[in-house]
Each structure stands twice: as structure tokens, then as C-alpha cells.
Design a protein that fits this description.
Number of helices: 8
CATH topology of the largest domain: Nucleoside Triphosphate Pyrophosphohydrolase
Keywords: Hydrolase, Magnesium, Metal-binding, NAD
Distance between the termini: 17 Å
Cofactor: Mg(2+)
Helix content: 25-40%
Pfam family, one: NUDIX
Organism: Hoyosella subflava (strain DSM 45089 / JCM 17490 / NBRC 109087 / DQS3-9A1)
Number of strands: 15
Order of helices and strands: HEEEHEEEHHEEEEEEHEEEHHH
CATH superfamily of the largest domain: Nucleoside Triphosphate Pyrophosphohydrolase
Strand content: 15-25%
CATH class of the largest domain: Alpha Beta
Structural class: alpha+beta
CATH architecture of the largest domain: Alpha-Beta Complex
EC number: 3.6.1.22
Largest sheet: 6 strands, mixed
Length: 317
């Protein structure tokens, strides 16, 4: 019988429900009029934003340009659509002052700021990679308030791309979970198994394939938990959990998985608690050293899934 549980909280980057007002994207007169009171989120080439770990600093649109820049994206409308404030995002040099990143701030920002930052980074990343037509190779230009690009040679239109990926907590139905680490990660960091959905493949089939490829373990009773945008550069993480027999041999995929092993509930609980404590104190280095391993960061859905599993297991004990 599968050990059922649910996410205890909405994933950090899924908390905001922006009013995107898609119907205004091709209404240039409305957008130009709204620019007088618009706010602008600047992201530089490294996806750093002007702001702190708890708050984004938006600029007044007219202070940057007389009209919406051709490469800007209409992210959201705040308030009534007829009189609401337009919020845009654009690549640019940041003014002097504090800067932050989505990885650092995503779990600490308000739902509104997290939503603005996530959407802006995802769409701007797509623009960076879609400057030329995939059919004829001609240059493309942004249209529809940044939500599409049109080829200047053949007229083909392209739209922001999101790559689906699965991430799965493999557990034994009891008090053990299978975690792994990639060679490029910081020492001691372990997380859930994950991978991109291939063409013609369902998300559940991808869970089976990715876990089998990465650690050589067969899973069963796959259950969906939730999703989160992950704009690094433009993914959507689909969260699952599944059962596996710990007696199966673990065979790490060469070049992809440096190590994988089963962790106990006590080890996972300690690591999650240590990370939470480190976020509340300046003694983070000392606290992190006390844990068996370092879990995924709070901005990731992996952290939410692991935390929910711990809470569910403790509730049953």
C-alpha cells in the first residue's frame, strides 16, 4: 500500500497568481497610455534583479523610456484592467544598489514579487535563445508585448517555450528515501531524482525511465504531488513520489550521478531542520556542518516534497 502524502505548502515559485491580461498584449494604445504609471522590473544578463532577498525594487517606467521598450514584456496588471498599473520586465543594466537572484530570494519574496521575478526570468531567457527563426534562420523581433517573436524573413511566429521535467521522491513506503547527488553540486548536497520529459513520453513514463537510468532502480505506484515553474532556464517541474524496493542494487549513471543512497527519516529530518535554522541565523556554516547532508534549497519544489514527506511520516509515528 502506497504511503500517501501531499505537499504541505505551495511551492515557493508557484505562490503567485498574476493577472496577466493577455487580451491587452496586442492593444498598443492601451499599453502606451498605461506606461505613464507603469512599473518596470530590470534583470541584467546574469538574471540579477534590483532589490533585496525579501523585496524587489521596481522602477517607474517613464524614468527609463518614453514608451514601452520594444524588448520589454508585459508581466502583469495590478488592479482593475481599465485603471490598473502595468508591470513590465526588460533586460538592462541595474542601477547602483543591492541586487538579488531568484535562487537566493525566491522563497523569501512575497507571492507577488516571486511571481513577477519568475515570469520575467523565464520569458527573458526564452527571448535570449529565440533571436533567430528555427525554420529559415532569419532574425526575429518581439511582438505582443514580449509574448511572441516574429521572423523578419518568413513571418513565422514563435511563443515562449517551457520544458516539462519530472522530479520524484523515491521512498520505501516506510522511513527511507533514495537521494542522489550530481558531480557538479557542492559537497554534501543530495536531492531528488529528476529529468526532462522526452518527446512522445508521458510524465509518469519519464519517472520510470529517469529513475531507472540514473540509479538503476525500478519504481511503482507513482503519484503526482504538484508543480512549480523553474526558469533555469525555462522549465516546469512536475513533482511526484513513488515506491521502490531498497533491496534493489543502486547503479549510478556515469557522468550524471556521483553517488546515490538511502537516507533514514532521522537523517532527512535533521538535514531539513538544520537548513531551516541556518536560514534564521548568521551561524549557518556551523549549523550546516551538523547535518548528515545538505538538502535542496527552499526555493525548489524538491525541498517542499522532502519536507512534506518528513511531516507525513512523523504524523504517523
Amino acid at each position: 500500500m502506497i504511503n500517501a502524502f501531499e505537499l504541505a505548502n505551495t511551492p515557493a515559485l508557484s505562490r503567485s497568481a498574476l493577472e496577466r491580461a493577455a487580451e491587452l498584449r496586442d492593444a498598443p494604445d492601451v499599453l502606451e497610455a498605461g506606461w505613464k504609471h507603469a512599473k518596470l522590473l530590470l534583470l541584467n544578463e546574469q538574471n540579477h534583479a534590483f532589490g533585496t532577498a525579501t523585496r524587489l525594487h521596481l522602477l517607474a517606467g517613464p524614468d527609463v523610456a518614453k514608451a514601452p521598450p520594444s524588448n520589454a514584456i508585459l508581466i502583469a496588471i495590478e488592479g482593475e484592467e481599465e485603471s490598473g498599473r502595468h508591470v513590465w520586465a526588460v533586460r538592462g543594466s541595474l542601477p547602483p544598489g543591492p541586487v538579488t537572484t531568484l535562487r537566493e530570494a525566491g522563497s523569501l519574496l512575497s507571492p507577488r514579487d516571486a511571481g513577477l521575478f519568475t515570469t520575467a526570468q523565464a520569458v527573458l531567457n526564452w527571448h535570449d535563445a529565440a533571436r533567430y527563426c528555427a525554420v529559415c534562420g532569419g532574425p526575429t523581433a518581439a511582438i505582443s508585448a514580449g509574448w511572441a517573436r516574429r521572423c523578419q524573413s518568413c513571418g513565422r511566429e514563435d511563443y515562449p517555450r517551457t520544458d516539462p521535467a519530472v522530479i520524484c521522491l523515491v521512498h520505501d513506503g516506510g522511513d527511507r528515501v533514495l537521494l542522489a547527488r550530481q558531480p557538479s553540486w557542492p559537497s554534501g548536497r543530495y536531492s531528488l531524482l529528476a529529468g526532462f520529459v522526452e518527446a512522445g513520453e508521458s510524465a509518469e513514463a519519464c519517472v520510470h525511465r529517469e529513475v531507472g537510468e540514473e540509479v538503476g532502480v525500478a519504481v511503482r505506484d507513482i503519484r503526482y504531488l504538484g508543480s512549480q515553474p523553474w526558469p533555469f532556464p525555462r522549465s516546469l517541474m512536475l513533482g511526484y513520489h513513488a515506491l521502490a524496493d531498497p533491496a534493489q542494487p543502486i547503479i549510478p549513471e556515469p557522468g550524471e550521478i556521483e553517488e546515490a543512497r538511502w537516507f533514514s527519516l532521522t537523517e532527512v529530518e535533521s538535514a531539513v531542520a538544520t537548513m531551516a535554522a541556518a536560514a534564521r541565523t548568521t551561524r549557518s556554516r556551523t549549523l550546516t556542518a551538523a547535518a548528515t547532508f545538505t538538502p535542496p534549497g527552499a526555493v525548489s519544489i524538491a525541498h517542499g516534497i522532502l519536507t512534506a514527506w518528513v511531516q507525513a511520516r512523523r504524523a504517523r509515528s
